[in-house]
Amino acid sequence: MRRSLCLGALATASGPGAPDRSVRRVDPGASKVFFSETFGDGWESRWTPSEWKKSDGTQGTWKLSAGKWFSNEAEDQGIQTAEDSRFFGLAANFESFSNSGKELIIQYQAKYEKDIECGGGYVKVGPKLEDPTTFGDPTPYNIMFGPDKCGYTKRTHLIFSYKGKNVLKKTDLPYKQEGEGTSHVYRLTLKPDNTAKVEIDGEQVYDGSLKEDWEMLAAKEIKDPDDKKPSDWVDDSMMDDPEDKKPDGWVEEKRIVDANAKKPDDWDDEEDGEWEAPMIDNPEYKGEWTIKRISNPAYKGFWEAKKIANPEYVDDDSLYKYDDFGFIGFDLWQVKGNTIFDNVIITDDVAEADKFVAKWKALSEIEKAKKKEEDDKKAEEAKAAASSDSKDDDDDDDADSED
């Protein structure tokens, strides 16, 4: 039977030869796994469904499911969004800790059984919730991480909260949920040197600086507001050629009166109106004349105000640090549901996170093999259907020929 854990408590032994079922608290500063969940027995006691959208009837429900492809159904079960076009909220509190001085890993597994069309599959991690039933979009968080899609916009979100503002990464991270129905594992590693690393399916897709790739801090330099472009500054790189003149015989009239046209003999001005010769294309027409452009010898380049130190810039070497991590939750809108989440872990121990990656790899191989079987079967059925349609068309042609 698979077990789920929410660490912060450990069983110890006491008495000669007999297990002691008592529990002792562990110093959070010494913990290696702050939270872990595989959605085994009793998961409902550790997680609280949100009621944020219950009053307007758009609150979705959660159920256990391993999906259509799995190795061991009981072992591979996760929580699944049960309906389409719903908000889904689910949160779990755990013993609060700070990541000060720690390398923190946030990792989980997600599988889109359907193409979500528009919606998210991310987690939010933040300070402990007073009432998890109110968890929803307005709830403050420290980090939001995971896949998000709406139409053609697809990315893996990584948002950090800084001084009350949720700051998006300047450029998007790759999106792996391409509707194939297999599991993916997402890992964020947040480091005390103010860098972050993102791995998807064990492959590194980003490794960079919070200071450079998120606009948490004010810019070090700004344009000097007192610096003005000189009045004689020339920023046109090209100019009209002063030597270029339109030729004297250049014809720009596209249409002319037909000089050979004659008023019909039976034309009656009183009945037909005043006769006018028709217009025809001008055989001398040469097109609209334009002056030749040449490089401007006075061109000085693109003008830009000089940079000066930004008086509002304040460096911060603790961008990565949060005083309180105490909850993890899913706060999602999904047009198409049936997304499965599993194997959630928050830790500062890479080896512990790697155990779940190894578990994902074993499941992924089975999912891909079963997907191939299904795809091959569909291809054979499509081929057979096409062959049958072709035979029917041939039979119809033969019948027509006999008729």
TrEMBL record:
Keywords: Calcium, Chaperone, Disulfide bond, Endoplasmic reticulum, Lectin, Metal-binding, Repeat, Signal, Zinc. One of its GO terms (molecular function) is unfolded protein binding. PANTHER family: CALRETICULIN, CALRETICULIN AND CALNEXIN. It is found in: Endoplasmic reticulum lumen. Its main location: endoplasmic reticulum. One of its GO terms (biological process) is ERAD pathway. Disulfide bonds join 118-150. Residues 233-242, 391-403 have a biased composition (Acidic residues). PROSITE patterns: CALRETICULIN_2, CALRETICULIN_REPEAT. An alpha-D-glucoside binds at residues 122, 124, 141, 148, 331. Residues 221-232, 369-383 have a biased composition (Basic and acidic residues). Gene3D superfamilies: 2.60.120.200, Calreticulin/calnexin, P domain (2.10.250.10). Residues 221-248, 369-403 are annotated as: Disordered. This is Calreticulin. Pfam families: Calreticulin. InterPro entries: Calret/calnex, Calret/calnex_CS, Calreticulin, Calreticulin/calnexin_P_dom_sf, ConA-like_dom_sf. Transmembrane segments: none annotated. GO terms for cellular component: endoplasmic reticulum lumen; endoplasmic reticulum membrane. Belongs to the calreticulin family. It comes from Effrenium voratum.
